[in-house]
Design a protein that fits this description.
Radius of gyration: 19 Å
Number of helices: 8
Number of strands: 13
Order of helices and strands: EHEEEHEHEEHEEEHEEHEHH
Helix content: 25-40%
Strand order of the largest sheet: 3-2-1-4-5-6-11
Shape: globular
Strand content: 15-25%
């Protein structure tokens, strides 16, 4: 069993990953920005909570020196920020500086699948973080994912709310964009499977389900599974900015997150 750091511990993936690692007997150090957040119902002896903000250099001052693996699951999409890249860079660099003071053998990063087309600010920042982690001098494994299907995933919450609430949708053109959805249990399988795996060191893997489909197809597939009749018509007049406001009215996802996801 290993000593493992999980940043972004209160997030959609972080919480599930911590549960899975604890069940396998690993000793987990979970970084939380603030107190009062529940990760597990009954805190086991092999879970250690660290409170700190990685925008500050000393956020991981309580981290033990003999940590072996560090997961980087951080993002800064909780608010619209004109300096998103600067924030992401600062957080990633502070993370690297902190884990360099330990005996960590591997950094594992969950990023985003990107194409060669024009990238959004969010996706550019994801690639920038990759470069910072790769240049750290520490062995890395990078997993890139598209839409992750599972309760509390922002993308999935948007899909669910739209289909459940709207029998007829007048949708923007971005619903024709392609994605490769993957189930959260499969993401966890990969995140655990690469731990100190020699064949995964220094590698980047794009992970996804078996099908590439448009967002429109994803919506209709969800409707099919739920036995709901849904009709989607695309129009050219809804800009990404306007459609972000539209999503906020219909779904439970906050504007900042909807905006970054739509732009991406």
């Amino acid at each position: 069993m290993h000593k493992i750091l999980v940043t972004g511990a209160s997030g959609f993936i972080g919480k599930r990953l911590i549960q899975a690692l604890l069940q396998e007997g690993h000793e987990v150090y979970a970084l939380l920005r603030t107190g009062g957040i529940s990760i597990v119902q009954d805190k086991p002896d092999n879970l250690h909570l660290i409170y700190g903000d990685l925008r500050k250099r000393d956020a991981l001052s309580e981290l033990p020196e003999d940590i072996e693996v560090a997961y980087y699951l951080m993002h800064s999409m909780s608010a619209i920020a004109s300096d998103l890249s600067d924030i992401e860079r600062q957080v990633a660099e502070n993370f690297v500086a902190s884990v360099k003071g330990t005996k960590v053998q591997q950094i594992i990063y969950l990023g985003a699948i990107v194409s060669d087309s024009k990238l959004s600010l969010h996706l550019k920042s994801r690639l920038m973080v990759e470069e910072i982690l790769k240049e750290s001098g520490i062995a890395f494994t990078i997993l890139r994912a598209s839409i992750i299907i599972g309760s509390a995933s922002a993308s999935f919450e948007i899909i669910r709310d739209l289909v459940e609430k709207l029998p007829v949708m007048v949708a923007p053109r971005w619903v024709k964009s392609l994605c490769q959805p993957i189930a959260v249990r499969d993401v966890l399988f990969y995140l655990k499977g690469v731990i100190l795996n020699p064949q995964c060191m220094g590698c980047i893997f794009e992970i996804g389900g078996p099908e590439v489909m448009s967002f429109k197809q994803v919506l209709l597939e969800y409707a099919k599974i739920r036995h709901l009749k849904r009709y989607i018509f695309t129009v050219p007049v809804l800009t990404p900015h306007l459609s972000s406001y539209w999503l906020v009215f219909i779904t439970s996802v906050r504007f900042s997150l909807a905006s970054y996801l739509v732009e991406s």
